[in-house]
Amino acid sequence: xxxxxxxxxxxxxxxxxxxxxxxxxxxxxxxxxxxxxxxxxxxxxxxxxxxxxxxxxxxxxxxxxxxxxxxxxxxxxxxxxxxxxxxxxxxxxxxxxxxxxxxxxxxxxxxxxxxxxxxxxxxxxxxxxxxxxxxxxxxxxxxxxxxxxxxxxxxxxxxxxxxxxxxxxxxxxxxxxxxxxxxxxxxxxxxxxxxxxxxxxxxxxxxxxxxxxxxxxxxxxxxxxxxxxxxxxxxxxxxxxxxxxxxxxxxxxxxxxxxxxxxxxxxxxxxxxxxxxxxxxx
Length: 282
Description:
The structure is a single chain. The protein has ten helices and ten strands. By secondary structure, it is an alpha/beta fold. It folds into three domains: 4-84, Arc Repressor Mutant, subunit A, CATH 1.10.10.10; 90-158 and 255-281, Periplasmic binding protein-like II (D-Maltodextrin-Binding Protein, domain 2), CATH 3.40.190.10; 161-252, D-Maltodextrin-Binding Protein, domain 2 (3-Layer(aba) Sandwich), CATH 3.40.190.10. The protein is elongated and about 90 Å long. The mean pLDDT is 88.
């Protein structure tokens, strides 16, 4: 019923002083413009213009239709742009830390995949320090990971606070050294945690070391001790201890994107999607 050609004619005529002027803008004759408007009015059963030999004005129904017409034409233009653009093909070697993979990152990768289904994603999950090394060795095109305080490398995306997390209803015995669950060296969160403890004067002992955030989370849920983790990893079964206010404050961690010196079109496209996503607005 709402032919987009008629809607385009209607949209142009709504901003013109006459059908003749609208025709000049569209490259149509005045009679063709009149025919499009007439057929649109007949299909809707509504009069859209009040017109005489000297003026052209929208009726109330015409003003209402103009709002919808512009939305329809915008959607039509976006659809045409998407399906007329050349399809992106290739491979992207992407690295990320597992705390992001378990948090907000999957939605961003899904958005990329839906827009560019013919691009192969090769995902490497590991400690940020290992990912940096892989990027420098030419094994990755792009990575998202943490940045140490004071470093400038990478494009800042967002920062999030770290939290002490353990199984629900845990009360930490502050008279004893704090039982820590940590990532191995040279983990950025490990260094930040130990630095915060050193400044606070608290004593600690390392009860578990895991090479992944997932392993640290499992140990914390099992009641082995305290894990200092980014807050987006908190859940119903992994929460701050009851007396968390008595524990030393933990710093924020900053997440950045790093790219190879030369990016392929697929890798640059993923980078642009990530930088425009809610990851970079958190």
